[in-house]
Amino acid sequence: MNEVFDFAKEHMTKSIEVLKKDLNTLRTGKVSIHALDGVKVEYYGAPTPLNQVANVTATDATTIVVNPWDKSVMKDIERAIQEANIGVNPNNDGESIKLYFPPMTEEERKKQAKKAKEFAEKAKIAIRNIRREANDEIKSMLKEKLITEDEERNALEEVQKITDDFVKKTDEIVNKKIDDVMKV
Asked: What is the spatial distance between Cα 20 and Cα 169, in angstroms, rounded to a whole number?
């Protein structure tokens, strides 16, 4: 029984971690280098994460500077950023690539908040799917007569409590991110 609970907790924790990664890609009032997390650069024939071919830093609230370690991949980095469609055009000065993000409008903030809610819903669906798997495992244990009906009922209630806790965590994380996004 404890194995089922551990399975549920472990997988639901992974869903929360994925949610946090997704939320890091959203833009708040201040730009984050995580906005470039999804950018892959064609580097010697292999798609490589941008942060593995260049130093990426946020110099101020609206600027990100990308300093490639190998200047021969400048054009590839520039192309990858344009294809990533993150809302800015790269400015290549031969030494580094600068990304100037305009200050966020109210409309952009609302779009980011909506994306955050979509990420939350995706996480909740994953959590509910894990709950279903755990419940199925408990029901099969009852069929195999490994547990009694009372134990089944208690186990299903425990899985529901675990699920409720993780759904609540998801809401707290997303609401905090939405507050950050909407803060001017």
From this structure: 11
Question: 132: which 2 tokens?
Answer: 């279903």
Residue 33: phi and psi, rounded to 5, are: -65, -15
Structural domains of the chain in order of their starting residue, each with its CATH number: 2-24+105-182 (1.10.132.20), 33-100 (3.30.1360.40)
**Tokens 């993000």 belong to residue:** 101
Residue 40, SS3 per DSSP: strand
- Residue 43 gets which letter from DSSP? E
Of the ranges 4-13, 32-41, 164-173, which one carries the lowest mean pLDDT score? 32-41
Q: For residue 148, how far is the Cα from the chain centroid?
A: 40
β 46-49/54-60 pair status: unpaired
**Full-model pTM:** 0.76
